[in-house]
Amino acid sequence: MREGDLSLYTSSLQHALKTLRIRWEQTQETWQDHVARKFGDEYIEPIPPQVDSALKAINRLTTVFAHAREECS
């Protein structure tokens, strides 16, 4: 992995979110009470927007690192 290359982290984060969504759907097949809904609302639902924000920040950092590498070459 090239120094400043954050693509591995981006991929890992996207994969983790996909896994979370799949596992949460599986969990909801058997856990369907008000506690499950509250848990989903409070803990699961906020995650995708947070991941999107993190991915955007990582992409910006990748650009900054590429520019810095170019300037230092």
Descriptive notes:
The protein is mostly helical and 73 residues long. The protein has one domain (7-72). Helix content is 81%, strand content 0%. The chain has three helices and no strands. The chain has helices at residues 7-28, 34-44, 47-72. The longest helix has 26 residues, at 47-72. It is elongated and about 60 Å long. 0% of the residues are buried.
User: Which radius of gyration do the C-alpha atoms yield?
Assistant: 17 Å
Largest sheet: none
The fraction of residues assigned to DSSP E strands is: under 5%
Briefly note the structural class of the backbone.
Answer: mainly alpha
**Annotation field: number of helices:** 3
Number-wise, the strands total 0
Please mark out the parts with pLDDT under 50 across 5 or more consecutive residues, or reply none: none
Question: Can you give the helix content as a percent range?
Answer: over 70%
Number of self-contained structural domains: 1
- In whole angstroms, how far apart are the ends? 18 Å
Approximate shape = elongated
The helix/strand series, from N terminus to C terminus, equals: HHH
Rounded average pLDDT:
93
What attributes does this structure have?
single chain, mainly alpha, 81% helix, 73 residues, 3 helices
Quick structural overview:
With about 70 residues, this protein is an all-alpha fold. Helix content is about 80%, strand content about 0%.
Secondary structure layout plus pairing:
Blueprint: H1 7-28, H2 34-44, H3 47-72
